Each structure stands twice: as structure tokens, then as C-alpha cells.
């Protein structure tokens, strides 16, 4: 059975999708962009953008009763690989080094609202 996960502590979906779906103990989180849910505005600069995306992901995980330790897979989309090192340091700061998820990072030509970063995750209930 599928359960839709929604929280006001992460940006509302801007299209026909949900923030996340929980099915059979697996949480599929839609790609998050750097929108501040309190204001609905984009934050700018790769440092602030990465922090906001991770906070949005954390809010969705929390709503589902999980943490970053439950994340088994992450997909990161960057507009420029020149931002990789900065993004990677910030991303790592939210995670426990003993439970890093599998991950890929790819450069893309464009992202929604022309942001610099988008991250999606898959988490598993313990």
C-alpha cells in the first residue's frame, strides 16, 4: 500500500507529483530544489542552495519518521560540475559517515526554475 508523505516544512509540489511516497517500507522522495518553504522563494548561490535542498529533504524524512541514516540512495543533479566540491562538503555534513547512501551526481543543462542543484533520495525504514 502506498502512503503519500507531505509536510509544510518542505516546498509544495509545483507539478503533478507528491513530495514523497512510502511503499512497503521504502520512501521515494521527489527531487528537491532550493525553495525556502517559509517564503516560497528560491535561495541563491550553491552553498545556500545545497543547504536548503538538504533541509527540505530532512523535513520530508522527518515527516515520514526517518532521518538521513535511513537514506539508501541519492541522486544529485548539478547545473555545473564546477560546484561539485562545495556541494559535496555541504551534502556530507548532513550525513553520518558510517551510513553514507549510494549516490550518483550528474551535470544537467537545466533544472526547474533554473536552479543550480536538485537532489532526490530513496530511504528505507529500519
Q: Can you describe this structure?
A:
It is a single chain. The chain has 126 residues and is an alpha+beta fold. The protein contains two helices and six strands. It has a six-stranded mixed sheet, with helices on one face. The radius of gyration is 14 Å and the shape is globular.
What descriptive keywords fit this protein?
alpha+beta, 6-stranded mixed beta sheet, 6 strands
Per-chain topology:
Elements: E1 2-5, E2 20-23, E3 26-32, H1 46-63, E4 71-78, H2 84-93, E5 102-107, E6 117-124
Helix pairs in contact: 1-2
Organism: Chryseobacterium zhengzhouense
Protein name: RidA family protein
Pfam families: Ribonuc_L-PSP
Brief overview, please?
The chain is of the alpha+beta class and 126 residues long.
Residue runs with pLDDT of under 50 for 5 or more positions: none
Total helices: the number is 2
SSE topology string: EEEHEHEE
CA-based gyration radius = 14 Å
Query: Quick one: biggest sheet?
Result: 6 strands, mixed
The averaged pLDDT comes out at: 97
Tell me the overall shape: globular
Share in β-strands: 25-35%
Total DSSP E strands: 6
Secondary-structure-derived class: alpha+beta
What is the percent of helical residues? 10-25%
What is the rounded distance between the termini? 18 Å
Major β-sheet strand ordering? 1-2-3-6-4-5
Amino acid at each position: 500500500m502506498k502512503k503519500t508523505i507531505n509536510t509544510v516544512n518542505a516546498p509544495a509540489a509545483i507539478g503533478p507529483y507528491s513530495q514523497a511516497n512510502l511503499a512497503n517500507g521504502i520512501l521515494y522522495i521527489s527531487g528537491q530544489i532550493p525553495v525556502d518553504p517559509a517564503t516560497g522563494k528560491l535561495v541563491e548561490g550553491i552553498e545556500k542552495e545545497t543547504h536548503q535542498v538538504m533541509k527540505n529533504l530532512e523535513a520530508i524524512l522527518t515527516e515520514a519518521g526517518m532521518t538521513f541514516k535511513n537514506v539508501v540512495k541519492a541522486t544529485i543533479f548539478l547545473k555545473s560540475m564546477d560546484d561539485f566540491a562545495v556541494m559535496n562538503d555541504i551534502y556530507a555534513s548532513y550525513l553520518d559517515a558510517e551510513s553514507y547512501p549510494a549516490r550518483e551526481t550528474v551535470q544537467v543543462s537545466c533544472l526547474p526554475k533554473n536552479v543550480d542543484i536538485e537532489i532526490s533520495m530513496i530511504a528505507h525504514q529500519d
